[in-house]
Input
Amino acid sequence: MPLTRGTAKPMLRILDTPVLELLIERLRQHGITQIVINTSHHAEAVEQYFGDGRRFGVEIAYSFEGYLSQGELVGEPLGSAGALRHIQRHAGFFDDTFLVLCGDAVVDIDFTALVAEHHRNRALATIALAEVPRSEVCHYGVAVLDESGMVTGFQEKPSVEDAASTLVNTGIYVFEPQILNHIPDTYPADIGSQVFPALAAQGLALFGARLSMTWLDIGRLPDFYRVSQLALLGKVPGYQLPGREIAPGLRTGINVSVNPRRCRLEGPIVIAGGARIEDGTALIGPCFIGAGAVVEAGARIERSIILPHARIGQLADLHAVVTDGQYCMSEDGTVIDLQVTDLPWVIGDARMPASAIREAEQRFLDTLR
Output
């Protein structure tokens, strides 16, 4: 939150592309084309965007977790393990080795090699593990391995001092169908906190895989900001920057209003279709300006992500923030509710009537008298 107030987290866009789309494309490249997506929060947006998957080269079905109440869908998550049981009870989908992935990370991993290692170990379950700095272990589930790579224990978000390793659970798993026999018969049920510790305690074939991989979690606001910046810098494997290059370090979509000779532009900068950058602005990259956004003359934006339809007024001087015109979020995750500040002529929505902007500005000036 607040980016997810109107969308599911896997639908958050890295510049112009939902995280879930990037993940599906990576799966398709490895021949994994039958996909069931668990939905709950803002389920309709996911289904409307991906449909049956044909335009993405895969087959997609959905498993909704929740119920309909007074015409509104109410999410009621079953837990990551409960979701598997729910899918299996529907039509027995899991009849061979299968992958389970969290949808809120940008991933570049050799899924083919991961499945091969799983089979080589004759594993019941395999977890793709990532090495993180010790200072970051408190945000993740930590796995402890023996010399053979078998998981012997788990720590859920341990303190830096107590962490037994720096190998963390990425939410990328390979399972055999028999894993369903180890899932509690009640909801919600969780893979990381219930199923895996039980497997490890019983000494069953649960392995950790340490493959060369890129794993960029977007679970927190600082993560989302960091991954967006990496994308602008060309450091997200497999990600192609949108638009076309019209000047060194400047890419734009169609119908963009910008005159590079009348602005201060230091790339990399990506400006999405329909945006307007007025003369006299300064954009210091890495910067992204979303579709339909407006940056007024005199505004200065540095190392920031401006989401679609945001309006950045001439008095604005933004440094290392994400804003959608309603909230402004700094790179450390601090959130300012712009609706409470009532300063839409500084940062607001480009679709607001000019009269409403003037009225808000006048209210502010009145408070200074």
User: Anything to note?
Assistant: DSSP finds eight helices and 30 strands in the chain.
